[in-house]
Design a protein that fits this description.
Layout lengths: L1 E3 L2 H9 L5 H20 L6 E6 L3 H15 L3 E6 L12 E5 L9 E2 L8 E4 L14 E2 L5 E5 L4 H4 L3 H5 L1 E5 L10 E3 L2 H7 L13 E5 L7 H12 L4 E7 L12 E5 L4 H8 L5 E4 L7 H13 L3 E4 L2 H6 L4 H4 L5 E3 L3 H8 L7 H12 L2 E4 L4 E4 L5 E4 L11 H14 L4 H17 L8 H16 L6
Parallel strand pairs: 2-3, 2-4, 4-6, 5-7, 6-8, 8-9, 10-19, 11-12, 11-14, 12-13, 14-15, 15-16, 16-17
Antiparallel strand pairs: 1-10, 17-18, 18-19
Helix pairs in contact: 2-3, 6-15, 7-14, 7-16, 8-9, 14-15, 14-16, 15-16
């Protein structure tokens, strides 16, 4: 996993460094120069403009400039405080104006069409939130040091940073509580199917849908199957028969009222519960959801209408005897927490997880997953192709299957989001719908096998 440190955490790491700051600057400058030479395709005779500020970020840029000059590069260093509106012609602009500690608005000069290499983070992007203040030079690449910063993985900073290179300059980041999940990490989290496995080794109960609104239920159930559940039972309150459910899913007839008790009586055979997609939000349904969560002895994924049923009464979740994964988008987060998540999405996920005593998966362009102890996993595999109806139902089913397979709740939520995003990336650039993800999930799981050793 790739460590992520906030600007404050990074400052503490810098302060604890055993090497002098001059040594660290030289290492950062060397790393920047290496990436610059890669982008230039060589050095001798090429033109580089270094936009340098007065802090350590500018010092990193000046150190890179000195190294590039030794390689025959024609370098012009421009003071960021006195920069012209248009920079001199160049084959590459190195943006070392401001780092993660920048405050206020930044009005970047015109790079004249030259590609931009940002040092640590594009100037004007908030290191904590990824928010851009004023006019920022979009970078083709960013070289950052010791650990990623939240602003490099949260939008719009993620897009403005381009391809990010992480350079080790000898700082100790072992205390990081936040990490970006990679394929090898997911591979290590997914358990191998035992030789003597059977369908009841990883059974999932899905309580979802309502009469006339069964699509979400079908997506969640089918996703659980594709993600490795051995048995999926699909229960829709008040629906006598559901001929459209996935062929392999076993139906459970539920009455229109008193259905929570009926589900609870069946759960002793199951290892996880997915509840909420398409259930509805009428008063009786909300009461049934709350009753089911209170009595269910298995790990639960709470999504969609079940999040509405919980609302701000987080005691419903805190009092559960088994683990809970909450999967809110921003609107659902506001109903749970009483306020929107705000710009600091890592802190928002942590705060709700601590208050609810549950794992929180905060959906967005970058997915943030936090547990009650403050550990955070960041997932960057998803993109705008997932911004269509029903994709969240698929995610819930995936997480439910991983929980049933014995993956810990934080890991199940993070790995599920990684697989979900990877499946989308294997689909078409345009026209992807939620149902397409079901057929792409086996390929996403296969890609994990190429990423590292499986657990």
């Amino acid at each position: 996993m790739i460590p992520v440190l906030t600007p404050a955490e990074m400052a503490a790491v810098d302060a604890a460094a055993t090497d002098p700051v001059e040594v660290l600057i030289e290492r950062a400058g060397a790393a920047t120069a290496r990436v610059a030479l890669q982008m230039l395709g060589g050095g001798y005779g090429r033109r580089v403009v270094v936009l340098a500020g007065k802090g350590n970020n500018g010092a990193d840029g000046r150190a890179a400039a000195a190294r590039l000059r030794r390689r025959g590069v024609r370098v012009v260093v421009v003071d960021a405080l006195d920069a012209p509106r248009r920079l001199p012609p160049a084959d590459l602009v190195i943006d070392a104006a401001y780092g993660t500690g920048f405050r206020g608005d930044y009005d970047a000069p015109d790079a004249g069409g030259a590609p931009v290499l940002a040092v640590d983070i594009p100037s004007g992007v908030a290191g904590l939130t990824g928010a851009a203040a004023g006019r920022v030079l979009p970078a083709e690449r960013t070289v950052t040091f010791a650990a990623l910063k939240p602003g490099l993985v949260l939008e719009p900073g993620r897009s403005l940073a381009g391809a990010v290179s992480l350079a080790d300059i000898g700082l100790d980041v072992s205390g990081a509580r936040t990490h970006v999940l990679e394929a090898a990490d997911v591979a290590a989290l997914l358990p191998l199917r035992a030789a003597d496995a059977h369908k009841w080794s990883a059974p999932v109960m899905v309580v979802a849908g309502s009469p006339g609104m069964t699509g979400a239920a079908h997506l969640a159930a089918a996703a659980a199957q594709r993600a490795g559940a051995g048995m999926v039972r699909l229960a829709t309150p008040g629906l006598g028969d559901d001929p459209g459910r996935p062929t392999e899913a076993v139906g459970l007839r539920l009455p229109e009222s008193g259905w929570a008790e009926a589900v609870s009586r069946e759960l002793h055979r199951f290892r996880s519960l997915v509840v909420g997609p398409g259930l509805g939000t009428d008063l009786a349904t909300r009461g049934g959801i709350r009753l089911l969560l209170g009595s269910a002895p298995v790990a639960a994924v709470v999504d969609g209408d079940a999040l509405t049923a919980v609302g701000s009464d987080l005691e419903v979740v805190r009092d559960r005897v088994a683990a809970t994964v909450l999967t809110p988008h921003d609107g659902e987060y506001a109903r749970l927490a009483g306020h929107p998540p705000g710009d600091d999405r890592l802190d928002a996920a942590r705060a709700l997880a601590a208050e609810a005593g549950a794992v929180v998966l905060l959906k967005g362009p970058t997915t943030v997953v936090a547990d009650p102890e403050g550990t955070v996993r960041i997932v960057t595999t998803g993109d705008s192709r997932l911004a269509t109806a029903g994709t969240g139902d698929v995610l819930s089913g995936i997480i439910g299957a991983l929980l049933a397979r014995g993956v810990r709740p934080l890991d199940a939520a993070a790995a599920g989001a990684w697989l979900h995003g990877t499946a989308a990336s294997l689909g078409p650039e345009a026209g992807l719908v939620a149902g397409d993800l079901l057929g792409l999930l086996p390929a996403a799981l296969a890609s994990v096998r190429a990423g590292g050793t499986r657990g």
